Fold each of these.
Amino acid sequence: MPEAMPLEQIIGTWIAAFLTLAIFSFLYRDNPIYKFAEHVFVGVSAGYGVVITWREAVVPDLIQPLLDPGAVDLAGPNYVVLIPGALGMLMFSRFFPRYDWLSRWPIAFVMGYSSGLAIPAAIQMSLLPQLHATLLPVWPNGDTSAWMAFSNLLLFVGVLCTLAYFFFSREHKGALGVASKVGIFFLMVAFGAGFGNTVMARVSLLIGRVQFLYEDWWLALVRPWFGG
Amino acid sequence: MKAPEARTTGLVMALLLASACAWAADPGAPLNLRAADDPEDDRGIVMLVSWDEPEAPPPDDVQLVGYQLMAAPAGESLRLLTNVQLDEGTQSGSNEFRPWPWPGYNVAVAAVYAPEGISFDYLVDEDGNVKDSRATVVMSDTIGPVQPVGLWFDRDRTNILVLVVAICAIVLLTIAAVRGHAEDVYIRPIAGLEAVNDAVGRATEMGKPMVYVSGLSGIGDIATIASMLILGHLSRRAAAYETDIIVPCNDPMVMVAEREIVRQAYSEAGKPDVYRPENIWFVTDSQFGYVAAVDGIMVREQPAACFYMGYFYAEALILAETGNQTGAIQIAGTDADTQLPFFITACDYTLMGEELYAASAYLARQPLLVAQLRGQDIAKVIIAAILIVGVAAATVAALASGVVADLAMRFVEWFAS
């Protein structure tokens, strides 16, 4: 056993390596070891989620503003937090079938508020930036080379045709049909590029995991047992 | 006369020594602190603060290395807003002030001294607070309350207001116009949605359940809301054929809403007794913990059909790949453009982007939803027209000069967010 590594780190590395291999075993077929790792993963993450919610949301956003305002830089209790607190408590009415309809109130509040917020946010963060980024000169001039003008034109045509594909209330025939077909072509080119890019990122994640198994576990902990 | 002179000299020397000692212990504080609202800031969250350097030079063994801008609403203890390096001068702006109702703030600036050779960055922790015992922090007088005031109307967002009002007006007017004859409005076929009914039929014939995943976003996400509308339709079909539908959830609030939707769908289909709430449950809110669980469910239950509708992240391919291996018919729909390639690759049918939103109108054929879809299409035509005019304007602005170019450029820049 290597002496340089602390015991808790050795135990942690063994557990991590076992769970990694257990999850990888799913690539062969479903098996009891995978089931064990799956249940540990789900149980630990659900429990961890509860603790995080308590520490990062309930305590600083509800309990401290009411009972310990100084801890969150408040001069006095902030009773406004009682409103979201009460809405949150209504979710517990699910445990009482007679009153479970009360849980619809916080759900309705969140859905309504989120939908209302989403409309200006979508225009500000998606529509306007993309619209503005497309409004570029399509003829060469002092600041725009011929190649850049061609790129701008391609972008313009791509956006228009892709927009045509997402036109639902008219049959895709004639000019609209041609434009939507060209739009699909642009979409597939973009998806192909995105696919390749993301696969590369996933491979790097796999490399990281294999590197952990090889360096941190095999070389550091297992091979020394075989005199390596 | 010698004795009094000696006493006077001694007294002067003692006073000088005492003042030198006091000076060494307490280097100078920033002077003449001034704070004012930033007139360029429409939201009222920016305050401009300036000050004068300490008059007295610091003792020989330390040097001034920087300043700390502190502020807090009246009645609260001062907290650090930002650190100012010496080469940044004696003024700073902070945009960390609270928006409406724009409380008044007490403001102070601290001068930070350190032994020679130690820079400001070495004295502060990751939150910017001075923790090094070698540092001496000397606070200025506190001024205030100073109130950063915003405008009730943010002029920078006029374009957003105009577009929100225009698009909402178009949709509302279309709803009013189409309301009476919504069934006559054409909606182009969407292959993935036509396959939904086939998938339910397949599951019924095979006597196997269906798995429905509504993404990893919360209940407030538009994709999740669209997904729940599709789940409602799917549940009605499943109830009619008494086919099980399994809905593992990533968010507890989504779970509650989906139970309500499915229960309602089973009631509408006249089969409330077939509804099984235990088939819709919360798994975990951890991304990959959820994926591990859903993969296990798919392999063990061998569903006849898998649906992935909503917003997805890196788990998209893992889910779709596992579903593909089980031989299930797979239909996906998402507005997460980075995940669409994976669904297109691994699923039989994929609803891309806005097709997911259109699905509810397509499936339900409710007048309100159909009219809304028509209204969105009209808005798209207007956006296409803006694109054509805008590109022409950008080209004119680049080629021409004078008033025409200026007007064209102003048109283009109006759309800057």
Amino acid sequence: MFYREAGDFHTTYKDDNQTFPIKFDRIRYYVVLAVAFGVIPFLINDYWANAVFVPFLIYAIAAIGLNILTGYCGQVSLGTGGFMAVGAYACYKLMTAFPEVSIVFHLIGAGFVTAGVGVLFGLPSLRIKGFYLAVATLAAQFFLVWLFNKVPWFYNYSASGQINAPERTVFGMAVTGPNTEAWAKYMICLVFLTVLAWIARNLTRGTVGRSWMAIRDMDIAAEIIGVNPLRAKLTAFAVSSFFVGIAGALFFSVYLGAVEVGEAFGINKSFLVLFMIIIGGLGSIFGSLAGAAFLVLLPVLLKNILVGGLGWPIDIAAHMELIIVGGLIVVFLIAEPHGLAQLWKIGKEKLRLWPFPH
Amino acid sequence: MSDNLIYAMEVTLNGLMAGVLYALVALGFVLIYKASGIFNFAQGVMALFAAMTLVGIEKGQVPFSHLINAVLGTEVHHFGWHLHSFLAIAFTVVVMIGLAWAVQQVIFKHLVGQEPIILFMATIGLAYFLEGVADLMWGSEIKNLDICLTSNLCMPQGINEAIDQTTYEWFGYGFFIDNLDITATIVAMVLVAALVAFSQYTKQGRAMRAVADDHQAALSVGISLNFIWVLVWSVAGFVALVAGIMWGAKSGVQFSLSLIALKALPVLMLGGFTSIPGAIVGGLIIGVGEKLFEFAIGPMVGGATENWFAYVLALLFLVFRPQGLFGEKIIERV
């Protein structure tokens, strides 16, 4: 009834190509943005920021990044944790080397550094494909983590081997360090997510995105129609790593504040982000957000139900989480390989015909 | 002979032994990959699961006791018996066959004909699932694994005195070779011989090879694909059990077992995904390579290079020879 394209005339080419062709969707999008920017910052407290919102926003950035590489360009990567570590350490080095420059530039700079490293580890993708590549990216994961552990220059020769985020401000508000307010953490992550998601959406529907998808669907055919695989694959690695690097930098500086590399950016992080995009939906920006939200909320929910509600020990809840996540991956791959995003799409199709489906 | 050379020889020998263990895990991958085209990421967790089940059955632990206690408020932990090792192994084999059947029926039956990368991701899901089940079933603490023939004849551990003595007489320096590694090498050789015999001389083994060769041709001469896949997963489960016993006896049954098994992946890339000799040679190369690298370069760069050496070696190798040492040449048809 209210979810119709009827009466909403697209009279220009631009109108026809918009992201949300249905008016209801457009309004919903602006409402979500308004709530995210205008309402939540005033209500948020430390628990909600640290347990739900900040990790969700950061993982969403990482998931969009990996989705560009895996979902849009078809190159499976198990090195996300390693690339997040590059972002974190690049951010740390920049923060400590140029303390007078705003942290926003450090975060973006960390993204560019990671993009460079990503391209380097993306080079083998020109020769190898599929799970061969997946295993090759494991090299990035283990090598980078080892590097940050063993070379003292990266952690400024600190005795503990950890890196700690010094206090930095944006417009006079602390966004890193112990004095940060919950809403400031939330806002900086939200701003980054909004801008990056907007960039990702527009990249993926433009020339670059189309060449990625052509490579994903069939690389030989793509080559024949004139897509340069070298360019397509390496741009995918670069853009993806840029996103993942910023996520890693935010994860370290804003969310955790202090990081021990093996613990924070281990192989499990790579899998977690991969699971987010499988459950959320490969090749979908909305899917990345949905998957990130799902896997951030699930442990919180399970902990509240099993430990808080039923009084089970924490370790059982942790094991249950593994079982449920693993089971869900398999269920999604069998029943709905396009994930939550596809379910959402089907729902919208149904809604378009509702209440008279025939 | 210079000291360094002697040390290097000892390191090489130890690397060979470690390589045998990598090869053991890699074998399971190759079996499944050849027969069904599934790249089974869960092989390492299967080894962990098998070893935990073995310890649990042997010590008479009640499965899911933590969960049962948490739900019902009871205090059950042990049945109060201690099974003979071989009986426990037999029961574990039955469990692994049951697991193989369940995996085939519940997961891969529904994924036939999907892209390899989807199957790969499904096995990552399976790995998480199994890990959770194993922890929930038997508890996540580190367990000791002893395989004993009789109460005082157990699997040998510790330094091998004979080798220590002999090498001392030869070079004036006794090599440290763990008895367990020698046992593992012998077991691995027996296992490979048994696998070869099985696939060459039995009806099921021939059917398995036929399926590996060509699914459709095998189907047309009346081989049940479903049965063969269950069989292959069972054999892989058995290999996982052997690998789990060896690793478990070496460093205790714990989660890191599945991480060690991750190293079977570069082994495979080096040896080729479809070749059993490749898995063994690849395992040995990685084992020796990482030990020697750590010995020669490790001290200069801060050590612990074993964490990544295998992966980087495989990565570099792949760039020049994508099919691995013994793999079939990858031909792409359009």
